[in-house]
């Protein structure tokens, strides 16, 4: 239901109330049979009678299996919004909503979320009314809350979190058993997100320059994550709504029309974003640190995906063994968890953005699009494998850099001696030796085209529009990354990543 009213020429009020109901169903059925039907003709070993033989008492691979599943999830919501505007100069808007999720028990299913925002059109003010430089200037600010019900990050996940569940497993002496799958958490509930945003929209210099600037802070509370519990419960971890995460950032978008006349048009555009996140709170039982192996960990005061490793310090000139720093500032030849520190590198980029250019001249057009990410790191397992000197008889290729490996006492090098005990996996999981900068700048798209004008086509009664173009994608990349492709997604270790393909296209657009 909506309401809209304009009165006294300068006042406008819009309001609405809404109800929304959503429900999804998932039904599945499966049947599996291994082996060939013994009634068919044949003598191969696949023709086996579906019985349990003496040699496979606990693994009857030729016994058919059947299964089915029935899942449902949904959301019921009612919400309202209102907006007031005064003379297209000042405005304020508010909204509030209530959501009920199928995922949680009755006491936790409802979440209440709201927002409020204001705007100010400064170009309506007297001090900018006749400005020749500022054509448009609007200030806006908002604060609001929202919720996340998909705490396990999938549509049908987390439906059974409030319940203790069991599954089939292996028990004493290899016997089939029913084992604990998860401990119930009846308190699982909405993750709560609050965000404040201040923004500025502008147009300058006869609108040749347009853009927007936003500054924000986003706080996620009741963060769903694992917390350690005593193994006496049959598991060592349970997921709960404990913890908080903060994101702070700035986003800028700019467009500049450099030149425009009857023949030429030149325009530039770009956007850049800066975002830093920080974990504010972890479960008390974690003592400020959640580390389950690998090269990253969660810690209060650190970003998500922070690398938690031993610092590589080169090679011992006396014996050729690798050296690692200790937290106290000393050196050791042993990789140990006690020597791990946060090295100031993270999995997710702090900077992201893109740049576009448009050049038009009498039907010819050249368009380019660049994209970049910066301030992120990744383990380079491809390079680590090529520089693995722990064993040389595995049939694998090796990098030329191994020729610089330590051979004689007194050698100064960054490559340990051949045959030393640590392999590439040891370095990747526990040290920063192969933790490299994965920032890049890439020419994402370049397109050159020619469009026939109406004058050229006026004698043709069939073709009303004609354009030919040639296009290339991902043909140029600038990066310090030594692997196949710096654009490997946000993961801690890169190995055998299929590189982003270079694509070349020639085509036409014909309108009849």
Could you give a short description of this structure?
This protein is mainly β and 512 residues long.
Key features of this structure:
15-stranded antiparallel beta sheet; 512 residues; mainly beta; 3 helices
In order across it, which strands form the biggest sheet?
A: 1-2-3-4-5-6-9-10-13-14-22-23-26-27-29
Strand fraction equals: over 45%
Number of strands: 29
Distance between the termini: 44 Å
The overall pLDDT, averaged over residues, is 89
The largest β sheet comes out as: 15 strands, antiparallel
Question: Would you write up a description of this structure?
Answer:
There is one protein chain. With 512 residues, the protein is mainly beta. The chain is 3% helix and 52% strand. The chain has three helices and 29 strands. The strands form six sheets. It has a 15-stranded antiparallel β-sheet, with no helix packed on it. The two termini are 44 Å apart. The model has no long low-confidence stretch (mean pLDDT 89).
Present the secondary structure layout.
Blueprint: E1 2-7, E2 11-32, E3 65-86, E4 90-101, E5 110-121, E6 134-148, E7 165-170, E8 176-182, E9 191-204, E10 209-221, E11 224-228, E12 237-241, E13 244-260, E14 264-281, E15 289-290, E16 296-299, E17 306-309, E18 312-315, E19 322-325, E20 331-332, E21 341-346, E22 351-361, E23 364-374, E24 377-380, H1 381-386, H2 424-430, E25 435-437, E26 440-451, H3 454-457, E27 465-479, E28 493-494, E29 503-511
Parallel strand pairs: 24-28
Antiparallel strand pairs: 1-2, 2-3, 3-4, 4-5, 5-6, 6-9, 7-8, 9-10, 10-13, 11-12, 13-14, 14-22, 15-16, 16-17, 17-21, 18-19, 19-20, 22-23, 23-26, 24-25, 26-27, 27-29
């Amino acid at each position: 239901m909506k309401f809209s009213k304009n009165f006294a020429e300068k006042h406008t009020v819009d309001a609405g109330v809404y109800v929304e109901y959503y429900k999804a169903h998932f039904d599945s059925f499966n049947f599996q049979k291994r082996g060939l039907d013994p009634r068919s003709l044949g003598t191969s070993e696949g023709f086996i009678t579906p019985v349990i033989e003496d040699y496979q008492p606990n693994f009857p691979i030729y016994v058919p299996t059947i299964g089915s599943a029935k899942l449902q999830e949904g959301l019921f919501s009612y919400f309202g919004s209102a907006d007031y505007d005064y003379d297209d100069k000042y405005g304020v808007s508010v909204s509030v909503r209530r959501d009920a999720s199928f995922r949680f028990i009755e006491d936790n299913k409802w979440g209440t979320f709201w927002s409020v925002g204001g705007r100010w059109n400064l170009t309506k003010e007297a001090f900018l009314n006749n400005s020749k430089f500022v054509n448009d200037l609007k200030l806006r600010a908002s604060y609001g809350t929202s919720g996340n019900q998909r705490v396990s990050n999938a549509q049908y996940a987390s439906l059974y979190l409030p319940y203790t569940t069991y599954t089939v497993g292996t028990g004493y002496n290899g016997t089939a058993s029913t084992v604990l799958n998860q401990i119930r958490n009846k308190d699982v509930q909405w993750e709560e997100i609050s965000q404040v945003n201040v923004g500025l929209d502008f147009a300058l210099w006869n609108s040749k320059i347009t853009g927007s600037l936003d500054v924000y802070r986003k706080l996620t509370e009741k963060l769903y994550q694992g917390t350690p519990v005593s193994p006496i419960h049959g598991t060592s971890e349970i997921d709960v709504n404990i913890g908080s995460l903060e994101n702070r950032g700035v986003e800028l978008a700019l467009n500049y029309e450099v030149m425009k006349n009857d023949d030429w048009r030149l325009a530039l555009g770009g956007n850049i974003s800066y975002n830093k996140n920080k974990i504010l709170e972890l479960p008390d039982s974690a003592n400020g640190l959640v580390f389950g192996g690998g090269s990253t960990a969660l810690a209060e005061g650190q970003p998500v995906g922070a690398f938690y490793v031993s610092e590589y310090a080169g090679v011992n000139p006396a014996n050729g063994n690798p050296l690692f720093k200790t937290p106290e500032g000393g050196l050791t030849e042993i990789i140990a968890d006690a020597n791990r520190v946060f090295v100031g590198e993270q999995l997710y980029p702090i900077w992201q953005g893109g740049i576009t250019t448009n050049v038009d001249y009498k039907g010819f057009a050249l368009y380019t699009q660049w994209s970049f990410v910066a301030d992120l790191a990744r383990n380079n397992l491809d390079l680590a494998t090529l520089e693995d000197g722990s064993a040389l008889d595995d049939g694998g290729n090796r990098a030329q850099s191994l020729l610089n490996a330590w051979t004689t006492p007194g050698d100064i090098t960054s490559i340990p001696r051949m045959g030393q005990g640590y392999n590439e996996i040891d370095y990747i999981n526990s040290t920063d030796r192969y933790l490299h900068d994965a920032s890049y700048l890439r020419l994402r798209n370049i397109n050159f085209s020619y469009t026939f004008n109406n004058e050229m086509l006026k004698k043709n009664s069939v073709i009303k529009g004609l354009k030919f173009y040639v296009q290339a994608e991902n043909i140029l990349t600038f990066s310090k990354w030594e692997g196949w492709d710096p654009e490997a997604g946000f993961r801690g270790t890169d190995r055998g990543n299929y590189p982003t393909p270079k694509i070349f296209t020639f085509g036409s657009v014909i309108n009849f």
